[in-house]
Amino acid sequence: SSSSSSSSVHAPVATALYLSNGFSSSKRETCSAFDTKIIQFPLFSTSRVHTDYVDCVRFVGNLIMSKSTNNVVQLWKPNLQRKQDSITEINEYRYSDCNLWFVKFCLDPQKRLMAIGNKAGRVFVFAVDSVSSNCIAKLEHKQCKSTVRQLAFSHDSSSLLFVCDDSTLWRFDISS
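User: That's the sequence. What structure does it adopt?
Assistant: Structure tokens below.
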């Protein structure tokens, strides 16, 4: 009984995968459930948060966290009821030595912590809900001297991985 219910649950997924792999006229009748929605206008757009390239963006609940090349990550929200590109700035997270393109920040799964690296191999960890914009931890190692490009928290936020331009991967275990 459990295998029949399991196969019935997986049947729609299998069908969707089959239909997505190429086009044939015999599939045409069954493709109507996968019609493409066309939206011609964005709900919101702004250039008020950053003055340079934006290279990383994440949702934090209904808020937006974004980063440019000016040593700051912004937490903000769009004001959809006000004028076209109106925003409310919630917080700024400042760090140093990272006026580079393509350096990603990461959020832990609970969206309580944010981490970002810099071109000197240091990682800054911030409490997202803190009133202060100061980092709560700075992670560094004397052998890590290369630009930190991307980071990832473990599922329970106990560890942080990051990769650098010199092809190294680093892991820090975080105590509560």
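Residues 1-6 have pLDDT under 50 and may be disordered.
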